[in-house]
Amino acid sequence: MKKSADVLEVINENTAKVMLYKHKKCSGCGSCNKHMHPGSIFEAGNPVRAQKGEMVDVNVQKKFSSTEFMVVYLLPVILFFTGLTLGGMIFPGQNGGGAAVGLAFLMLAVAVVVNIRFRRNFRPSYSVTITKRIAPAEPRL
Question: Which of 22, 67, 120, 131 could form a disulfide with 38 if both were Cys (CB 3.0 to 4.6 A apart)?
Fold first, then answer.
């Protein structure tokens, strides 16, 4: 995702501290990401050697999280098949199939609740890189 930012300070020749800001057409809907709000300050790679006070374009990429992958994707599948297997063991026979499927969907619902709670508290990490200098930053009113 491309965003614009101001360079707050140059930490070293390859790293700078930048502050993202809202685009003129942004209505603040939060669709870009709730953790990437205007005013967010990040350390960014600085291959273009931007200086303090310049306005720059930055490329923001969310880093892969194995914990997020497991909770969001693997946990629902594992709990569904666990519920199906346990339902088959607890309710044997021909009439137990419906109960086993019901238990599987109950376990899936538990996974969805865990997923929602996890996503609410999860703070992803980002990789921010300055891609180009735009202009010296002007004070905003």
Answer: 22
Domains of the chain by residue range: 2-62+124-136, 66-121
CATH class of the domain defined by 2-62+124-136: mainly beta
pLDDT digits (tens, 9 = 90+) for 95-109: 778 888 999 999 999
- How confident is the model over 34-71, as pLDDT tens digits? 555 556 788 888 888 888 888 888 888 888 888 889 99
Residue type, 119: R
Give the span between the Cα atoms of 127 and 3, in whole angstroms.
13
Band of residue 141 on the pLDDT scale cut at 50, 70, 90: very low
- What pLDDT is attached to residue 29? 58
